[in-house]
Amino acid sequence: MCLLDEVLAWDTERIRCVGRSHRDPGNPLRARGRLGIACGIEYAAQAMAVHGGLVAATSPLPRDRSPPAGYLAGVRGVRTYVHRLDDIGDDLLCDAVRAAGDETSALYDFTLTAGGATLLTGRATVILDAGDRISS
After folding, report:
1. Would residue 1 count as lying in a domain?
2. For the chain, what is the domain count?
3. What is the Cα–Cα distance from 54 to 63, expressed in whole angstroms?
4. Could you tell me if residue 22 is inside a domain?
């Protein structure tokens, strides 16, 4: 499920994406005909994933290695400024800024806006390539 439509800008520390799927009645995150504001965290998580892939694709690491898988380990300081996304007429802009990290984890600050209004903000911890560290 891809919620984002395009990457508007990115560099090694940040990304800005646009999403229009919040207006789609078939959006897979809808429940009872509504798309709650908490679903904005998934939009941000997808922007972080795209950012990680773009940075990995341009890094000097061997090209035969795929980018590490990332797992959303937690979110903190989430602030919501609206109740739902499906009634937002403007495109969603998702900004994610990598505040810290290394080869095993990343800390991102994220903001979701539309029409110049802030809808959601927060901070997310992403664990990278944790496959060998997660027990079954």
Report:
1. no
2. 1
3. 13
4. yes
What is the chain's pLDDT, residue by residue, as a tens digit (136 residues)?
899 999 999 999 999 999 999 999 999 999 999 999 999 999 999 999 999 989 888 877 665 666 667 889 999 999 999 999 999 999 999 999 999 988 889 999 999 999 999 999 999 999 987 555 454 4
Whether 26 is covered by a domain: the verdict is yes
